[in-house]
Amino acid sequence: MSVLTVIVVDESRKRAAEMCAGLACAGYQVAAVLSSAYDLQTKVEQLKPDVILIQTDSPSRDTLENMAVMDRTMPRPVVVFSNDADTKTIRRAMKAGVSAYVVDGLEAKRLKPVIDVAIARFEEHQELRKARDEARQKLNDRIVIDRAKGILMKLRGIDEDAAYHTLRKLAMERGKTIAAVSEDFIATARLLG
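The chain above was modelled as a monomer; its predicted structure follows.
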């Protein structure tokens, strides 16, 4: 198993050094230490870390916004260690893509289990997101195919089954999916209609 790389974000150099020492003892490699999340997205793009650890008194609005953007474009497990136990702050952090939010400090011996939980939660979340996106795509494809079938049925005076077989045949001939052929067909019908 390869060594996991970590980006550490902490405005305090002393706390960051302690966290880096704890990470090294737990078998992780620190890829970078940042004093703020301002440049986090660029560093994640460059270094492609496995995990991001943020230690802060309270996550700022900018930090949460940066994490939310990063969660959409290049998601990673994120652990936040904070002194802020406010429920609203925790909820905002979780919505921004934080995998684990730990209140009241950090002990070196807790780093590995906290990171393990964050990674497991992140992986589960990614699987759910993928399943949701696939279901959404299937529904969208179904809607497009049904629209194209409707247009074909109206134009040619054929039944639904014949319209589907026409789209299917076109898809095979063009080496495309039925949904892609249906989208092309609808676009053409709009131009002509």
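The radius of gyration is 24 Å.
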